[in-house]
Amino acid sequence: MWATRAQYLLWTLLDDPSSSRFAKWLSSIIMMIIGLSVISFTLESLPADCVVRDEWIELIGEDGETIRTRSTSPKYLCKDHEPDRSPFFEIETFCIMVFSVEFVLRLLSCPAGPGILRFIVAPMNIIDLAAILPWYIGKAYPGGGDSAKGLAVLRVLRLTRVLRIFKMSRNFQGLLLLIKTFQKSATALLMLCFFVAICLILFATLVFESEKGAWDEYRMQWIRADGTQSPFESIPESMWWTIITMCTVGYGDVWPITFAGQLVAIAAMFVGLLVLSLPITIIGANFDELYRQQRTKDEEAKAKRKREAQAERASRIAAGGPADLPQGFMASLLAGRARVDLGNDDLASHPLRRIQKLIAETHERLVKDCQALMDAQERELRSEITAALSILEETAAPPRSSAAAAPAPRYQ
User: Fold this and answer.
1) How many other CB atoms sit within 10 Å of the CB of residue 383?
2) Helix crossing, 88-109 with 21-43: angle to 10°?
């Protein structure tokens, strides 16, 4: 049973950062290592051993004298960067070792969590494995099989390291909230893609017909009226201009010059604003709703922790325990976090079980004693109030006169 207990504690430590302070620290350390790995992967792409060529040139003056001056167009040349250069190789090795240990520990402890099968097929765990395996494959086949194809495959596998940034979503609530928003807004996203696809085909066709110009048999190109080659050579190539126009980005690399093409551009811009804004409003509303739910859940968790702290204090006073117990320990016992397998009779004498039973009995006695004391105080208070009211009635009643005391005469 100790193995099951160890698996449960290890899984809670690695998967739930809010389970304890140490789990939160460990999650923060893993997040920093992920950030270090991503930064190292990014900086590794910078070229090294760069030199400037043709910075100085020699010109011949009118008198035949050689003049040495700076070039207006020097060449900045760099060598191809090596994938395993220092210090990026050492950083990558360290990060891979940490990620490997974390993945193995999570795999060993997953029977106490979701189970082995659900752990293996989970998308985040697949991403973790895809970010780790290329490093080991590269070490097993460092030359890529001495072929350009094998080397290209290894380079593609190395690109999977960028997937590590998604590992942050396990501990970063913002990314989890964004993923939940996309899941809830799946219908709106499909509708957005459908509308964009329709408009893409429509306006790409219209702008192609408006801007293609005339076909030149000699140049074998579509030629505009000014003699230049038309950038709208086909409907698929026109889709690039259509999508940047509908998104109102407008890079300016391609633009229509005919009146009909400009009208198509105006229509594409306005329709793009409408098509993109309507589904995005739904997505924004879903994000706002999930954000409010997350805030409410966080506030409830904070209030629960406050109640547990109060229960811990009350239990500590009732049990007469030492005041230097770790913070949250007694509350964890009451909440069942530091639990054992209570279904087994052989663990009936377990220290945690006895402590929990002692706390429960003490708390029950405390409640009964408080209730009895309150009842006694209430009875005493009622009797005192009754006595005071009777005295008040006697002193407040007017004295009876003799005339009033005499019986009234009776008339025959």
Assistant:
1) 10
2) 140
List, for residues 16-73, the tens digit of each pLDDT value: 777 778 888 888 888 888 888 888 877 877 777 777 777 676 677 667 677 777 776 7
Do 186-299 and 2-46+83-171 fall under one CATH topology? no
The residue with tokens 């350390």 is: 29
User: Which residue ranges make up each domain of the chain?
Assistant: 2-46+83-171, 50-80, 186-299, 307-384
The fold of the 2-46+83-171 domain, in CATH, is Four Helix Bundle (Hemerythrin (Met), subunit A) (1.20.120)
Residue 406 region, left (φ>0) first, then alpha (ψ -120 to 50), else beta?
beta
Strand pairing of 75-79 and 66-70?
unpaired
Cis link prior to 87 (omega < 30° from 0)?
A: yes
Query: How does DSSP assign 271-313, residue by residue?
Result: HHHHHHHHHHHHHHHHHHHHHHHHHHHHHHHHHHHHHHHHHHH
**The pTM is what?**
0.51
283 and 184 Cβ atoms separated by less than 8 Å: no
Q: Write out pLDDT tens, residues 123-142.
A: 778 878 877 887 887 777 76
- Two tokens, residue 68: 């040495």
* b/e 20-52 (16+ beta carbons within 10 angstroms → b): beebeebbeebbebbeebbebbeebeeeeeeee
| DSSP E strand stretches across 226-273 | none
Neighbours of 74 (CB within 10 A): 13
DSSP string spanning 144-211?
GGGSHHHHHHHHHHHGGGGGGGGGGGGT-HHHHHHHHHHHHTHHHHHHHHHHHHHHHHHHHHHHHHHH
Fold of 186-299: Helix Hairpins (1.10.287)
Query: Is 257 exposed, middle or buried (CB count within 10 Å of its CB: 0-12, 13-18, 19+)?
Result: middle
Asked if residue 225 lies in contact with residue 283, where contact means CB atoms within 8 angstroms, the answer is no
Instruction: Give me 135's structure tokens.
Output: 């490093």
Chain segment 371-396, per-residue pLDDT in tens = 888 888 888 888 888 887 777 777 76
Summary count for the chain: helices (H), strands (E)? 13, 6
